[in-house]
Queue: 3 jobs
Job 1
Amino acid sequence: MCIDAAVCDRAYQAVERGTAKCSSATASAAGTGDSLFGIGGLEVQNLENDVMDWDSHSSLQFKLSSTSSGTIAAQSYLRLFLWPLTAWALNSSTCTATCEPHEGSTCGTASCLIEVGDVSVVKIQLPSDMTPITDTINHVITVSDLSLPEFGFFPTRFGAQLTNPSDASPDYQTSTGFTMKEPSGLTLGSLLVSGPSGEGDAPFASDENLLYVKLRFGSTLWHSEVSSASFNITLPEGYECLEGADTLNVFAIDEISASNWEVSGRTCLYRLSETVSIHAGQVAFLGLTVRNPASVLSKLDPKNIWSVQLSSGGFHPSMTWEQNAVGFEAGSEVQACVAVLAPLTSTLQPEHFGVDGTGYAKVFFTPSQNVGSRGSVTLDAPIGFDFGENCTVLDLSSEYYVRVTTPLLVIPFLESCTGSRYPATAPTFNQ
């Protein structure tokens, strides 16, 4: 399938088709005399609101039961299909399974195996000396030593298959109860460097500013038939979220609609439309229009924290879960937060006033807030002015620094001067 409209005429349409084949033959389903699940015969334990949280429990525990007229025989095989199938990557050839017997019965040692290539399937053989499981005799199986996924997932069931001791005549069941997991540091948020100062085009206090956000989703969000899904961006105190939109037009078909945004105070919440999904590992870019705080805010201020939080009910029919809020992080061409600036009091005195003149420009300014060690000053000139890629910065001559009521001060320890282009397509180094 081709997805780039600039390259192909049939974007998002199939250009080649093949036939899928089963990797193994089909088998006859279980019948009378075979091992059978009862209704609700795979009951997850350690539940809270019908959900077992992998972050609170290191093992999976479930109770087995059969029908009123059937049994689950000793040495039967039980395969667990862990969902989401593509999230799991079981990387060990063995796991551990223990059996807690029903009162007054026996349940010996079970075997547990991760078969080669089955990265989301756990294969268990029930003990040879186990009292057969019925609708009233219910053993509890505990599976541990599983390598958990890095990606998270919201409440989901898992599947299981029973076969008889010769590993034939399968019976299938989905779990009663759900499991879920937080992503292991894979949900990320950042702000793109934009505008002349890197803080957006309107970085000053109380300005209406457009900022671009980069999000990576550590869990799949899906608005299913039974539950909704959303993500929420929380701004630092003093900000006001005004509007969210796909201002970069990065979605060709799965468009982020402005009508899906719910803004209130310093929170910007996007609610997915029905049937829409954003898959774990996907990256999205979007624009947020915000009202800057009424006072200056340093990047180093401990209150200057942006965060993102994912919410969904998964497959649960009546409840919604919020994963932990994750603070934005800095990286290449992205930042964890932006500063809110106050206008500088400044004047400029060029050395030459003629066209194509070359010389020093004397800059005088009064900062509105402290600038710490290894801080910087950016001089932004119109396109056409050229400081050069390796510019030169010097102190003024000594007569400028006379002691008066408001003396001029030398900037200590000038370290370097680097020219840059703004915007990036500018023909000269005008910053």
Note: The longest strand covers residues 208-216.
Job 2
Amino acid sequence: KGVYDLVNKKGYLFKGKSGVNVEEIPSDQDVLNIDPSFPINLVELLRHRIFEKLADADDEFAEIYLNNDVNDIKIDDIHKTIRKCTILNKIAPICLGSAKSNVGVQLLLDNVCNFLPSPREVKNYGYVYDGQNIADTDIVNNNMDADVENRETNDNCVQSNKNKREVQLLCDHSAPMVGFLFKIQEDSMHGQMSYFRIYQGKIRKKDMITNMITHKKEVVKKIMKMHSNMAQEINEAHAGDIIAINGITGSTGTTYTNGITTNLHLLNIYVPKPVISVAVEILKKGDMTKLTKALNKFTKEDPTFYVKTDEQTKETIFEGIGELQLEIYKERLKREFNINVNLKNPKINFKETITKPYECSYTYKKQKGGAGLYAHVHAIFETVSDNYNDTPHCQFVNEVIGNDLPKNFIQSIEKAFKEQIEKGYLNQSEIINMKMRLISGKIHEVDS
């Protein structure tokens, strides 16, 4: 229903359709009247912890914190310190809410405006790789060595490379254009919309810009300023703007320039590995072709969304970074493509193996008038490796000495061993990490 702001000591309720109406709850007593279970006794403790972290990060605020009662510290001083430390990458403010229920979204956007830097307040860098040719030397940071020492932690993740030169990008519309494509979205009206951040220079409608991956020139057909799901077409955008472009074909993480600068790349987007997977059940068999088309669109738009087919169960598997993300794609399949699916837990591909060595000697003997059936095998079964994950395969080793077993019999034993590995023993699951050492055997001249 709502959130509590520890800094401002206020509660907020989100009412109306999709939580669009925000109601401020000014006092702690009013909060308790609405929700008697709210742990109001923890508020002061948590506020103290916030102020202690701010004092550790900023000496000026530390003096204010030590010389004043917590309740006497001005909200403006708190906001000023949070903004200062956030820009310096010393802290990261956390806002709670629910995107699905639209709870806390308005406060999050307010905090983006209050605490995050404008494009002119931070330094951004690109990297020119070997063979670089920068025509406009004004964009090169001549004091690069001195400036690197003062770089904030987000730039320290760049891997060292002797053939890589660092370039400071200026938030200046008169400098050569450098931009970054960070999101792709298919739109029924505009086609592929490429969300684009301009770090330097400007872009005009019908400009030719160069894809730094393919080194091909592409035409900017439309420039749109986005307001939620509404697009306002404009003719020009400048450094610091975030826009949507129609006409370019780059993938997520592509750097674009105006062609003057070559081999310039910005740091790519970090894509986390999936942490959750679900199996997809199609309710209508004829929707498989439409589903393939829809999933191609989704995976192109979102690099954190993965689709695969389980080789053993033949199930279609969705993988992502959260349960809500996968539920949203389920709803989009229904809304945009009229495809109904169920999401369920994927089948678990159990594996079987042995836990300790086992030596056996087995004789098969059967007589039914005339020629019978006879075979004797002596073998040892053991693990291939102590690490099951590193050694999923099984091995067959022939250690028979002499000519007790003909070659064709040994081949038959190996074939039967491999067939049984696939079938399993306990619950028809594949057997892994097991070695069969064939020690000896016997045959009968007539019955084998």
Note: The chain has nine helices and 26 strands.
Job 3
Amino acid sequence: MSNQVDYSALQSLGLANQSPTVANSKKSDLGQGDFLKLMVTQLNNQDPMEPMENGDFLGQIAQFSTVNGIGDLQKSFSEFASSISNDQALQAANLVGRQVSVPLPAGVLAEGGSIAGELTLPASSPDVSIRITDQSGQIVKTLPLGSQSAGAVPFTWDGKRADGTMAPPGLYNIDGQARIDGQNFELDAQIAANVESVTLGGLGKPLQLNLTGLGSVPFSSVSRIF
């Protein structure tokens, strides 16, 4: 037998006032309530001499369960997104005004201040150093760190040039260098930076930290919070 709904029967029961073409132009998706009404109407108007087969009825029940499950899933996703947003807001409140360690090519030297950070050595080295250059590429100072074991190697530049005078405030490039097994390696530095503000990400977007003088970085890039 056919499982299609008799649309004229729906109209006689007050469940449809328009032709299928007009109705579909206004609403293309069936909700849970619509699906249930259609299924009940079909049962009420079926031919008693040829009732719906058990398999067909179970199939429609399964479809109804699917519609119901999709609605529950959408609600769960909405609640999950709200929870993530609330967690981000709490993280943001705790980070503003603090320092974080992030992989950056440069650091900001404040008036009378310093730049701190760390290198990560993949293996022990007898000769590790930090090269500091200004924005024109001129070497301001080289910090010798000597022999270091594999792992994190902290450093601090006090803001003084090679001649002992104070460098002007501004942005300075920080590069690490190490000699490992007879070869010279360039190492990226993790720089300590101040969190000025935070931009909350929407669903699927990361929390962004706005660093003083250094722009924005994703929260996922933070290796340490001071």
Note: Residues 73-98+193-225 form one domain.
